Amino acid sequence: MATRAEVTGLTLRIPTRVAGRPTFVHAATDVSITLAAGRVHALVGESGSGKSVLASTLTGLLPPGTRVSGRVVVDGIDVTPALGTPRHRIWGLLRGRVVGSVAQSAATSFTPTRTIGSQLLEAIEALGGTRSVDELADIARLPAWALAAYPHELSGGLVGRAAVAAALAGQPSIIVADEPTASLDRDLAGQVLDLLRDQADAGASVLLITHDVAGLLDRAVADDVSVMYAGRIVERGGAAQVWDDPRAAYTRALLAALPRNGLHVVPGDPPALTDLAEGVRFEDRVGGAL
Ligand SMILES: Nc1ncnc2c1ncn2[C@@H]1O[C@H](COP(=O)(O)OP(=O)(O)OP(=O)(O)O)[C@@H](O)[C@H]1O
């Protein structure tokens, strides 16, 4: 199975200020993750655990001044030296063409005053894609009338599918989808997840960032799962193993919070990632509640 992207021992510290005092957000600590051809890798964890920042290393969009150690290889290219330089020419070659992004908020990723079809055409031309707008629409199961529509005329599900179509305009081999189902109901979310699954089945490597564990389970969409807590990967493995036999207390807590498992809300609050103590663990958060 070909490796499409590999993150190894990645630590990210984002400069920020708390009460006027300069400090760092511990967004990622010693993170390793592998994206392989033909597979959907789900990255799950509560809000603020560092999932989006980690994903932005694949597109070179880290916050300015982020301190980086570790290694990121995309499509065989070691992009580590370019991680802090969003305008580095390597990102112009990779963004959209090798790494396609499905935005967190699909609706706002389109210009409101232009039709979906014209924006897809523009993306294809800008990225030198060889698929036509109709082909993209076909892959994303967008009806023909949706191409002539303005973004606000489409339902959430259709905008979600249009966002997947846009991400595919440059025929990327890696697709990063950051909460692509965030504002969708269960059926519509399922349609978007199915599209991403189709892309993996056609050979792409998909990084699917979500806190919707129920949606992942319903569609059996993921092959691999990494669970992130406070900037660290606390569990990784094949989806069946992680869901059926979770090793980490945090994974068990996420699963117990699902309605089907009794809706046991994850106890306590996620830690702030500023001035995070070294080696902070979920077990410390819940104390004797486990
Ligand atoms: N530009 C930035 N400057 C300072 N801190 C940032 C910046 N971007 C993200 N962070 C911080 O990095 C940490 C991780 O954020 P991130 O968005 O990656 O979490 P997440 O797991 O994706 O959560 P969500 O699902 O809410 O997006 C948070 O503490 C966030 O406040």
From TrEMBL:
It comes from Ammonicoccus fulvus. Residues 12-255 form the ABC transporter domain. This is ABC transporter ATP-binding protein. One of its GO terms (molecular function) is ATP binding. It is found in: Cell membrane. The keyword Cell membrane applies. Belongs to the ABC transporter superfamily. It is a peripheral membrane protein. Pfam families: ABC_tran, oligo_HPY. SMART domains: AAA (SM00382). The lineage of its organism: Bacteria, Bacillati, Actinomycetota, Actinomycetes, Propionibacteriales. Keywords: ATP-binding, Cell membrane, Membrane, Nucleotide-binding, Transport.
